[in-house]
Amino acid sequence: MKKVIYLDNASTTPVRKEVLSAMKPFWSENFGNPSSITKMGVLARKAVEQARMTIAECLLRRPNEVTFTGGGTESNNLAILGAVGYLEKRGSKISDLHFITTKIEHSSVLECFKELERRGAQVDYLGVQENGLIDLKELRKAIKSNTVLVSIAYANNEIGTVQPIRDIAKEVRHARKEKELPYFHTDASQAGLYLDLNVNQLGVDLMTLDGQKIYGPKDVGALFVKAGVNISPITFGGGQEKGLRSGTENVPLIVGLAKAFELARKDFEKTAKKVKNVRDYFWQKLQRQIPSAVLNGDGENRLPNNLNFSIPGIDPEFTVLCLDEAGIVCSTKSACDHDADESFVVRALGKSDEIVKSALRFSLDSKVTRRDIDFAVKKLYNIIYGHGKTH
Amino acid sequence: MKKVIYLDNASTTPVRKEVLSAMKPFWSENFGNPSSITKMGVLARKAVEQARMTIAECLLRRPNEVTFTGGGTESNNLAILGAVGYLEKRGSKISDLHFITTKIEHSSVLECFKELERRGAQVDYLGVQENGLIDLKELRKAIKSNTVLVSIAYANNEIGTVQPIRDIAKEVRHARKEKELPYFHTDASQAGLYLDLNVNQLGVDLMTLDGQKIYGPKDVGALFVKAGVNISPITFGGGQEKGLRSGTENVPLIVGLAKAFELARKDFEKTAKKVKNVRDYFWQKLQRQIPSAVLNGDGENRLPNNLNFSIPGIDPEFTVLCLDEAGIVCSTKSACDHDADESFVVRALGKSDEIVKSALRFSLDSKVTRRDIDFAVKKLYNIIYGHGKTH
């Protein structure tokens, strides 16, 4: 089989061997229902609670602040719609509630807010600067007395821009004063492998984690809900997960998520540095070979594994398909916006049409070598300029 | 290791070997995001659509009528809250909408309706007869001109009673006349292994399927949505599953669900007959040994693997724990009602307190032998009467 150089880790990652091993006993042997009072049930319950402990430890928080969900999309929905549900239950009218998010959030955040707008809520979508960072002053101005939730992703899934979460949290806390609200939610789906997740220092109230971005399984994730933060469930049933997420706990996937998270957090700074070196090499090499390439997103405040650039004049989808033929997997934008013909994230950077219409996203992992990058850049050059010799 | 006789299949089932094998390539090899345009993405997409086809074929329906979900609880939520969401979007006021369900539904159905009541809807909870069956005349009387949804489970998860789904569907269709509503939803989570799932003959509009009850994985299921039936999503994001269920498709679990379903449907009548024989043997033997045992639910219209009975005077939880010590796994009631101290389903049968407070649920599978049953009955006898000799 031809070697595949997988540079689409922002889309989804393979499941780690250790994660598969951790899940294995829970499919057909210790397969009990965690709500059963029998030994099999207790064993399953123990596995779920051990997984919760593992994730809590990585966040330096308590287990009862970790709710397991069906992945990043569900975590984002639970955080946003769940916060609204609680306020409505407490008597708030949705048309009185104000929300702040950004124009470059993942679709699972943006579409929640569009739904809230349909229901009558007021939502401010903050623009971003040309580097993809939000303007803190703009955020400060946007917060009103009836702002109940601010949701800003830790790291963007397309251009990798890392937002100043601590500063955002400070602004939110400042606006809050003695009040309980607004809450601050961050989608940290893309942050799991490379960024600091010390919740205490980040200062967030709600944080989304996703299995499939950290070499864990798809369709399992978690929502950090700080003690004292009130959200309501968005689906209903057996009342598992302290009532926040009904349905039999997905024991194997939860165990897998915890193992993936534990491994991801181990030496993440070292891994981040290693990946960043190769990514920087990629960008330097690319600039030499294809000088018309333009970086999308910030040079510094960026996921170490992300490289998003435009090459004016190219057809990005065709380029992705040609690279795919050559064994290099990348993408043009988020897989969750498959119907759109351009990246709304790159569009939000205020760049020209030819930049917006020619963006490519590469997302590396720690196994990618400089040799892989040499090969990828060569292929990219050949696709764009024909089979001439690269410099 | 001591042999375990697992008689709690209504709670959850182990994953079949063939299902594990089917899922295997999709964890770490063909792990692509089905929304990616690359070969890996196409491969993943193909696997998801093949799985959809498999399930559709088993239902004798079309693939576009099958929506993958995160399990039975989510399917039930999507059917009920999704139908409401669509009507609200079309301008209906929730307080004008009327719903019909029964008092013995699974918590994931009941709690949806309780939530709808909190939001102002009118819900009729039909009682059941002493055998657990609903009264069709009562249903007919309950349907009003503003009834928009009837939700009645195919087979009860505690007492195994199989409702006359075709007749219920006829009543609903009759009430509908030329109108589009009411829809008829059935939770078929417990039906997957043993009952007819020919949707055309059943006449349902929406049907819930669950992986973990048919030797498939937990946290994956499907909702059959008949063409022309309108429901709205209840979570928001990338718009996967024709907009009904956002989030990256859980490729391995979806493939596993389809394999489990395919195997479950193969010769299900033969399997049902085999299991029923052992179950009937169980009940006969039990009646001889413990004459005070009283059957809960109907003798005939019953899941072939379900035996639910009360033995007045026993402490059912203690009995379950003693049986568990002896290697026999069963339960007192639904694991999803872990906080309740009695079965609301057996309570709904209108029986005396001592029957309600002494119910045990056994749910067999096709591997259980008469010898296993002999052992189980003997142990049960010993637990109740002390270590005397059984007859």
Can you describe what's shown?
Two copies of one chain form a homodimer. Chain A has 391 residues and is of the alpha/beta class. Chain A is 40% helix and 13% strand. Chain A has a seven-stranded mixed β-sheet, sandwiched between helices. Chain A has a three-stranded antiparallel β-sheet with strand order 9-10-12. In chain A, α1 packs antiparallel against α9, α4 packs parallel to α5 and α10 packs parallel to α14. The longest helix of chain A has 22 residues. The model of chain A has no long low-confidence stretch (mean pLDDT 96). Chains A and B meet through α3, α4, α5, α9 and α11 of A and α3, α4, α5, α9 and α11 of B.
Question: Brief overview, please?
Answer:
Chain A has 14 helices and 12 strands.
Rounded to an integer in angstroms, the radius of gyration calculated over CA atoms of chain A is 21 Å
Say which CATH homologous superfamily of the largest domain in chain A is assigned.
Answer: Type I PLP-dependent aspartate aminotransferase-like (Major domain)
Level of helix content of chain A? 40-55%
Note the main sheet of chain A: 7 strands, mixed
Overall CATH class of the largest domain in chain A:
Alpha Beta
Give the largest interface.
A-B, 74 and 74 residues
Share of β-strand residues of chain A: 5-15%
CATH topology value of the largest domain in chain A? Aspartate Aminotransferase, domain 2
Give me the strand/helix succession of chain A: EHHHEHEHEHEHEHEEHHEEHEHHEH
Going across the biggest sheet of chain A, name each strand in turn: 2-8-7-6-5-3-4
* Count of helical regions of chain A: 14
